[in-house]
Amino acid sequence: MTIALAGNANVGKSAIFNQLTGLEQTVGNWAGKTVELAEGYLSHHGKTVRIIDLPGTYSMSAYSIEETVARDFISRERPDAVVNVVDATALERNLALTLQLLDMDAPIAIALNMMDMAVKRGMDVDARKLSGLLGVPVVPVVATRGSGVHELVDGAFDAAERTGRARPAGYGPEVESRIAKLCAVLDKVELGYPRRWAAIKLLEGDDGIVEVARMANPGLVSAAKILSDELEGEHGEPAAVVVASERYAAAARIAAACQKFQRRPKPSLAERLDALAMHRFWGYVWAIGVSVLLIATVSLVGGWATALISGAFEGLNPGGGGFWAALAWNGAVVGFYSAIAVAFGFILPFYLILGLLEDFGYLPRLAYLMDRPCHLVGLHGKACMPLMLGLGCNVPACAGCRIMENKRDRYIATFLSTLVPCSARAVVVLGLVGVYLGFEWAVLIYILDFALIVGVGRLLNRLMPGSSAGLILEVPPYRAPSMKIVSRQAWARFRPFLATAVPLIVLGSVVIEGFYLAGYLGPVAELMSPVTVVWLGLPAFTGILLVLGTLRKEAALVLLSVVAGTTAIETVMTPLQMVVFAFVVMVYVPCVSTVAALVREVGWRSALGISAAEIGLAVLLGGLLYRVAGIFI
């Protein structure tokens, strides 16, 4: 059995998906599309159920890739049931999508989510009455706590077994009469879509459905155009606007019939918090404070974990031995515990804190604040979200730039996303500068990097002139983070690092130690010394790390002790060299995974151009930083 989760953005679909599937889930892309596909499984009453988390969407039109994916899956794949996740605090707006799902003749069950938030706001939503009006199962749910989730699956089974499909009263006599006429014609023409929904889309002039109809029966398109023109003549507005108005009016009637407002609550703590967090001045102060707190926390936790793990393993060092003993200990063992220290000391805490901010509802507010800075570099406001994804990993950030509407915006956003300090770069900055110099110096490097992003963006905006659109963003309510959900999401992000990066780092450590013992590292370091030593002022061995860092950025830090021959980094690098090295690693060519993503998104020529530009920026600015910062350090 297949159940699809459908709903607006920020209504709790992912929370329900995680509650249902736990860790039995996979994340990929929809075939031929650039939208993420989340799929999982559960066992319910002895039956295996496949759960598909559809992209968040506000309509079943095709104005975006997300809408196309959602509507094609429901209309063509015909899942056994569709769980429509509805925000109980914004019932009227959410029901507009519900009515479209009913028009598609989908077997739906409604998850009336955030019921706890509705109660706090003085709302009383009658789930039983809503079920009676729509003719579908309606289950009250609090997804963050898992309340009502299993009853929701029972509701989905009930929806799948129902033979009839109830729907609301309709969209008014003028619209319904035209829909009926088109449905009569569609009885004789097979378009591969639900009849009523196809009739509405033809009436609205939906380009995709009109093209399908033209190929099947050109006369159908002509008939739809006549009916659409009639409707426009009666109302003085395009037929699509008339249908949408009737739909929202129907949603308003249904919402009014099944919800009551017990009282007009006073401004809540969340509303007062928003007045600060989204203020045009204090909002940025708040954002800076949150960022500094994140950096400081990860630095402290990472430094403590690194010292603890390194100390535990150093006590086991047998010492002495020949080539193979040195290769085993300095290569394999040191590489392993260094990778584990970085993984559990820096990366996992970073993902946990990022997940807490995401689940709390702060990240969309940060995107709202960042809309104006994005316009400074000539970007569409949508670029905020993929750029913010880059804080976790640049690969999904590059893929996320596909939401930009034109090639110019996609290129600029993709370029800038590779400069966003991902978690791997954060490991280098926080694990080196944060631990040995203090988090305030790590903050300074972040400030320099963000200044570079703005500068590069403004330059690209001048070289590639064009216009940027505004940002329309739904800001979800604040919610108390669920540690169960946050920890699952953090583990899902963290698990690939353990599976791929740790073995790669251990292998790299063994290879480097082998080259060192064989005497091969010296010539490589000497070859790069005009750049690393003369211009950047770094120790010669850092050239090897810059090369290896292209595999995984965090490898530049993890393998530092291997190449330097000691875990006491402060004995082989000065504070100034640590700052310059961390900055260069943050800016220069992305890791190979990101380069591969660049090739996929913008082509190999542009990918090489971006990589070459970032190498040049890292070397040029790193040398300047060495000379300027040397005055203060």
- Distinct helical segment count: 28
Q: Which band does the percent of strand residues land in?
A: 5-15%
- C-alpha Rg (nearest Å): 28 Å
Total domain units = 3
Low-confidence stretches: 26-34
**Which percent range fits the helix content?**
55-70%
- β-strand number: 9
Overall pLDDT metric: 83
C-alpha end-to-end distance? 64 Å
**What is the overall shape?**
elongated
Q: Structural class from helices and strands?
A: alpha/beta
The main β sheet shows up as: 7 strands, mixed
Strand line-up across the major sheet: 2-3-4-1-5-6-8
Task: Provide the fold topology.
Elements: E1 2-7, H1 13-21, E2 25-29, E3 36-44, E4 47-53, H2 65-77, E5 81-87, H3 91-103, E6 108-113, H4 115-120, E7 123-125, H5 127-134, E8 138-140, H6 149-161, H7 173-186, H8 195-204, H9 207-216, H10 218-235, H11 239-258, E9 259-261, H12 269-277, H13 282-314, H14 323-360, H15 362-376, H16 384-389, H17 394-400, H18 407-417, H19 423-436, H20 439-463, H21 483-518, H22 521-535, H23 542-548, H24 555-558, H25 560-564, H26 575-587, H27 592-602, H28 604-629
Parallel strand pairs: 1-4, 1-5, 5-6, 6-8
Antiparallel strand pairs: 2-3, 3-4, 7-9
Helix pairs in contact: 3-11, 5-11, 7-8, 7-10, 8-10, 8-11, 9-10, 13-14, 13-19, 13-20, 14-19, 14-21, 17-18, 17-27, 19-20, 19-26, 20-26, 26-28, 27-28
